[in-house]
Amino acid sequence: MRNSFFKGHGLGNDYLVLDPRELSFRITPRAVRALCDRHTGLGADGVLALAPSRVADFGVRIYNPDGSEAEKSGNGLRILARALHALHRTRRTHFCVETRGGVVEIGLEVDARGDAHRVRVAMGRASFRPAALPCTLAVPELVDRSIRVGGRALRFTGVSVGNPHCVVFRRRGGAWSQRELRELGPRLETHPWFPRRTNVQLARARGPHALDVRVWERGAGETRSSGSSACAAACAGVRLGLVASPVRVHMPGGSLRVDVSADFGVTLEGPVAEIARGRLADCFVRMLGRRRA
Description:
CATH superfamily of the largest domain: Diaminopimelate Epimerase, Chain A, domain 1
Largest sheet: 18 strands, mixed
CATH topology of the largest domain: Diaminopimelate Epimerase, Chain A, domain 1
Shape: globular
Order of helices and strands: EEHEEEHEEEEEEHEEEHEEEEH
Number of domains: 2
Number of helices: 5
Low-confidence stretches: none
Strand content: 35-45%
CATH architecture of the largest domain: Roll
Radius of gyration: 19 Å
Structural class: alpha+beta
CATH class of the largest domain: Alpha Beta
């Protein structure tokens, strides 16, 4: 169907899935912003655009709601997997997807109705090296480093799981508040040490295998959940000795399971749901602008 879409969510983190070959407009930053607008568009935390791949079964380009491009998204990949299965692009329950942040392996759990209601994603190996994020701090690894934002002295651990993350743990006291996330998130995202910006997690250990995490996503802001953020927070917690694998990461939208191997290979598992599928109205497509010949 021309100009069709699929919309799904993982713990409240929602994405639109589009196939550029079926669109009469280009996926530009302007088009992404219009599609993701929650008042005048479909509304979403991002867009997943199918792409050709020579090294995997499928390829995808991941766009933030501000139109910028992301390297990887744990929730986005789970939604993409559900869409591929629901739209009969594949009937397999195991396949690979190429992202800008590397190739990932995906496994589907299909329920009695034939829905891929739970998805497991092998996200690759995490890195704490500054060049992997990137971060301009001249240290061997970004583990428990000091940083100052908004007049506050914090300690962070920088983690790349194919995309960049800045994890800040609270060692004493209660949970991080929404006010603190909104205060610290944008400052950390755009800190000069992170030339390509970064995702931000405010985390606290709640047990030997559990974390509480609030998420500020690069290009999206406050988010109810994030798969790659859950992976980064779990890896940072394991590296700092605050938790052990497997780690249950609790976010405002729900919880995800993260397995962290001895060499920091990361696997993410959690639920995924379909919201809607349909066709963009012609008048909306005209507003986005016709594809140039």
